[in-house]
Amino acid sequence: MELNDKxxxxxxxxxxxGRLVAQRLGAGGARVLVHGRDAIRGKATVxxxxxxxxxxxxxxxxLSSLAEVRRLTEAVRARTDRLDILINNAGxxxxxxxxxxxxxxxxxELRFAVNYLAGFLLTSELLPLLKASAPARIxxxxxxxxxxxxxxxxxxxxxxxxxxxxxxxxxxxxxxxxDLAEQLNGTGVTVNxxxxxxxxxxxxxxxxxxxxxxxxxxxxxxxxxxxxxPALEGRSGLYFDGQRESRxxxxxxxxxxxQQLRTLSLELVERASTSPMPKKQHL
Length: 283
Description:
The protein is of the alpha/beta class. Helix content is about 45%, strand content about 15%. The chain has eight helices and eight strands; from the N terminus they run E-H-E-H-E-H-E-H-E-H-E-H-H-E-E-H. The protein has helices at about 15-25, 40-50, 65-80, 110-130, 160-185, 205, 215-230, 255-275, and strands at about 5-10, 30-35, 55-60, 85-90, 135-140, 190-195, 240, 245. Strands 3-2-1-4-5-6-7-8 form an eight-stranded mixed beta sheet, with helices on both faces. The longest helix is centred in the middle third of the chain and has 23 residues, at about 110-130. The termini are far apart. The model is unreliable at about 275-283 (pLDDT under 50).
């Protein structure tokens, strides 16, 4: 894909693999909307892109709050009248084997909320902009770590485990990808997901107590491949392991499970939008 005059939004692009993707797409000529929670790191990323001759702007939002996700979409619409590439990269890691259960500002299990639900809402809200910019692409940065969703305990209130929470949230991203591809058929907007690389040298991996053995450069190349490769023009609903097309957990291909997830997701974002204050009760 020719990147000149293209606008790209990358969530979680002030650190790790997202930051490198932002730098490279900026160097390639794209206008990059940098997103992160930390304004200082965000401004540093924008300055790096601009110093290399690129164009970038910072949008600050905490994706653990669906209200902030909605404000982020408003900020995107205020800044641009087109969106050619959306990369849902922001996420929360496993935090290691002894991770404690945490909840989002809306009272939802944190990893499900940030890794999946925020991207579900953000993408849904930005679809009109993406369709108006077609051909456009959506890239969901998932993981090879996947675990089937237990719809009787999606928020993991029983026997919580951080790894399980992370793996279920990543599978939810892939299920959303397949479901959304079917809905977008014929619009000129494609959506694909990937596992960029195993145990990259990122903050997320180190916080999990794991010694990195892969580079962010490898992961960035895989993400950029889905975002820009001419070979993927018109191809949608796919899952990649690095740059190789692969198969996800079997639940991803279960139409009934995907519909269950979609129905639940719509209920959760609607509940968050009508709730006057963060929930005290966990699902």
